[in-house]
Amino acid sequence: MHYVKGLVCISCQKNYAPEPDRYLCSSCGENGLLDVEYDYSLLQSEWSPEQLQSSTAPGHWRYLPLLPVDPATPRPPLRVGGTPLYHNRALGEELGLQEIIIKDEGLNPTASLKDRASSLAVVKAREAGNNTISCSSTGNAASSLAGSAAASGLKAVIFVPERAPGGKVAQLMIFGARVISVQGSYSDTYELSAASIDRWHWYNRNAAINPYLMEGKKTAVLELAEQLNWQMPDWIVLTVGDGCTIAGAGKALQDLRELDFITRKPRLLGVQAAGCAPITRAWQQEAELQVCAEDSLADSIAVGNPRNWKKAVRAVRDSGGIMINVEDEEILEMMKLLGRKSGIFGEPAGVAGLAGIRRAVKAGIIQPREKVAVIITGNGLKDIDSARQAAGEPYSLAPEIEAMEEVVCKEGLD
Amino acid sequence: MHYVKGLVCISCQKNYAPEPDRYLCSSCGENGLLDVEYDYSLLQSEWSPEQLQSSTAPGHWRYLPLLPVDPATPRPPLRVGGTPLYHNRALGEELGLQEIIIKDEGLNPTASLKDRASSLAVVKAREAGNNTISCSSTGNAASSLAGSAAASGLKAVIFVPERAPGGKVAQLMIFGARVISVQGSYSDTYELSAASIDRWHWYNRNAAINPYLMEGKKTAVLELAEQLNWQMPDWIVLTVGDGCTIAGAGKALQDLRELDFITRKPRLLGVQAAGCAPITRAWQQEAELQVCAEDSLADSIAVGNPRNWKKAVRAVRDSGGIMINVEDEEILEMMKLLGRKSGIFGEPAGVAGLAGIRRAVKAGIIQPREKVAVIITGNGLKDIDSARQAAGEPYSLAPEIEAMEEVVCKEGLD
Q: Which of A131, A338, B288, B401 has the smallest number of CB atoms closer than 10 Å to its CB?
């Protein structure tokens, strides 16, 4: 916390001390999201890329000076971050580029980028003196919270709507979370979780209103920059749901630029599913957010009422970037294309960025010679049904070599 | 290949040149599995733990001097290995130990230890001048082969029995494998794959008969040893299906001891599912293998006719270790216990080792103060149905705070 100056409201600029359970501006309420501010001068005088290079901290904790946690607070033992980065020509060419840089966040402990935020949440809960931590979600945020809490010996209370898929619920139960299946809509679920958090004073792991979680998410981009030896690409591409992940990317770029670790900021390309794109609309029209329906198979980014939209729009705008929408069919096509060209299995929300890249290249927004990095945010094993829809059916044969001859000929396998 | 002396038959000791497509002894046939032999003296004079420490090769390729591949052959770009190791007291205590050391192999690119073998297979296929590689399997071997082949631009032909779960087939299809669903039993499937590999001269990725694949698997234990700074535990615990993984562990221990990287070998504890334990039986009775039924939910280790049983029994015996069986109920219990105490989600075959440890401690075979390392071989996201069976059901509530009060009280969350 040495380098944290405080929290500041993005609406009225009021300052707050960085209390671990300070979530929103007390004047502006839900319009008053808070930003964590760092003392960049002090940081720059005490920390450098060379010092970072000699760090032996596991995973994303190597960026501790840029994280709003007390170094003395126990951290969850799971290795979060340290995910691989690949340069891929074959996939790049399919999208109209010379190559593409892929960061596979599906190799985090619970198989998504959200582990970066949940690990911070668990530390802040401890700092707040809280042994119970709660959120409402059906997806990656829930499983990552359940995993980080289990690893730390904390209790997690997770509210899911009754329509939540059985498999995701099972993952939460395996991690020992107390899972409440709410007989009602997602709104009912959110309301019950908010009332319960308030009533029993649990720690609130809601990435949209908890200012510390975005700081965890930003480590994906800090890591990408370090893996590229601080030579940033022209574009960083991310899918956008509640807006926290791309806002975190924007914060990482701000940090790196302020500290002179990088000499220029890449542009951010934010990609939403066409069936649920309220942030793209707010960005295009320079208008307030309008809540919309959630009609996409990319469930992790189908957020009709994204509470972090302002920070997301700001991050895209500050980078000179754009927002773009893609159809579900394109997302399914990209699941298949990514798998075939890279051996990476991404979930729908994880691969939508690739469809956005192809559109942006076709529209002349991204130039073929530009360097483009995409973050695959979650593992496809989390959504096998979509994979089946994307990938088609196998050959079905009698166990006779004659039957194989036809397949071999058709597929050119001889 | 600099350090590879050749291949030797485990039955008649006949020697062979290390041709990439040499699978079995030509005299002994399927009884003549081959071992890769290294020139340990030469290796020891040219390689040391200090040199290893300065390696910047990704993942398990840091052990290249101990791998039977030509350093000049292009390697698949996926980062295989480099999986995390955790020391866990809470889980250790549940099993009757002071702590337990856990290696999470579910964080490999396609979510299992099998990636270590498939990455080798892809390299050997290239060395054999072969662009198509094939196996029959419904599980982790198939998906890892499909992923490694996709990343390398090779073709994979995978034979599955028609009962193969749709989700696993979808994963193969996403990676662009040519998947043949065979209308018949697993035996029919195996026979059609063998006939096809023979007929069309594809590269054979069958861990049981291909001597190079075990060399890939051994890197899990090489890595564990390095992560423990060469201070080996008293026991290394692995689940056993076709026998290749534990045989690979035995080979790693042999390598490390011959090279003086470690001063003593740990004992191997091999764990099979009680419903399919032909290797335990062969070990106990010092007899030939008897093929048995495959009656366990731990599908990845339910192998009734394990073709690598001799190397497995040899590895356990050479280490002074033992084989033990566990029931399916214990496996499900361990999925839950591991998740709750560590935040790691293991598949049934991945966690069966924990049940074996508990039995061995209770039987006085493992002492409470001994150091025990267990390898969690695959990610639980691959088998959500078993997770649901293990973890039970969530609370189902109306969206009213009064309903929550009862849960909070019962769970002690206030």
A: B288
Q: Are B310 and B10 in contact (CB under 8 A)?
A: yes
State CA A221 to chain mean position distance.
10
Distance CA A144, CA A119 (A): 8
Pairwise CA distance, residues A364 & B365, whole Å: 68
C-alpha neighbours within 13 Å on the C-beta side of residue A396: 7
Q: Hey, are the CB atoms on A395 and B157 less than 8 Å from each other?
A: no
- Give the residue carrying structure tokens 């964590």: A36
The residue of chain B nearest to residue A156, with distances taken between CA atoms, is: B413
- What is the distance of C-alpha A137 from the center of its chain? 14
In B, minimum Cα distance to A189 occurs at B399
Residue B320: count of CB within 10 angstroms of its CB: 10
List of chain A residues whose C-beta atoms are within 8 Å of the C-beta of residue B151: 342-343
Nearest to A179 among B162, B174, B395 (CB): B395
SS3 B52: helix
Query: What residues pair up with B269 in beta bridges, in sequence order?
Result: B237, B322
Among chain B residues, the shortest Cα distance to A405 is held by B196
Q: Pseudo-torsion of CA B70, B71, B74, B78, nearest 10°?
A: 110
Burial per residue of B34-58, b for 16 or more beta-carbon CB atoms within 10 angstroms, e otherwise: bbbebebeebeeebeeeebeeeeeb
Q: Which two tokens stand for residue A393?
A: 């059916």
Structural domains of chain A, with CATH: 85-111+212-391 (3.40.50.1100), 115-206 (3.40.50.1100)
Best to test chain A binding among B102, B345, B379 (most A CBs inside 10 Å): B345
Query: A406: which chain B residues are within 8 Å (Cβ-Cβ)?
Result: none
A110-121 pLDDT tens trace:
999 999 999 999
Give pLDDT, residue B88: 98
The stretch B50-70 carries a mean pLDDT of 96
User: Quick one: DSSP state of residue B265?
Assistant: P
Are residues A413 and B147, on separate chains, in Cβ contact within 8 Å? no
Chain B closest-CA separation from residue A283 CA (Å): 34
Which SS3 state, helix, strand or coil, does residue A168 take?
Answer: helix
- Identify the three-state secondary structure at position B7: strand
Q: Which of A296-305, A357-366, B236-245, B280-289 has the lowest mean pLDDT?
A: A296-305
Q: How confident is the model at residue A168 (pLDDT cuts 50, 70, 90)?
A: confident
Name the residue facing A183 among B111, B335, B398 (closest C-beta).
B398
Q: Three-class SS of residue B115?
A: helix
Question: At B2, is the pLDDT very low, low, confident or very high (cuts 50, 70, 90)?
Answer: confident
- Give, for A16, the enclosing helix (H) or strand (E): strand A15-16
Question: What CA–CA distances, in Å, run from A159 to A110, B10, B306, B389?
Answer: 18, 57, 45, 21
H-run or E-run covering B375? strand B372-376
Where would I find the H helices in B38-113? 40-46, 49-53, 89-94
Residues 6 or more apart whose Cβ sits within 8 Å of residue A405: none
| Residue A210 in tokens | 């908890």
Pairing of strands B178-182, A395-397: parallel
Contact B78 A391 (CB under 8 A): no
Which of B132, B152, B392 is closest, CB to CB, to A413? B132
Q: Do B388 and A107 touch (CB under 8 A)?
A: no
What is the SS3 assignment for A157? strand
Q: Which two tokens stand for residue A147?
A: 């995993």
DSSP-derived pairing of the beta strands B100-104 and B372-376:
parallel
Q: Give the integer Cα–Cα distance in Å for A6 and A10.
A: 13
**Amino acid identity for residue B13 in this structure:** Q
Radius of gyration of chain B (CA): 21
Are residues B387 and A170, on separate chains, in Cβ contact within 8 Å? yes
Where does the pLDDT of residue A163 fall: very low under 50, low under 70, confident under 90, or very high at 90 and above? confident
The rounded distance, in Å, linking the Cα atoms of A103 and A80 is 14
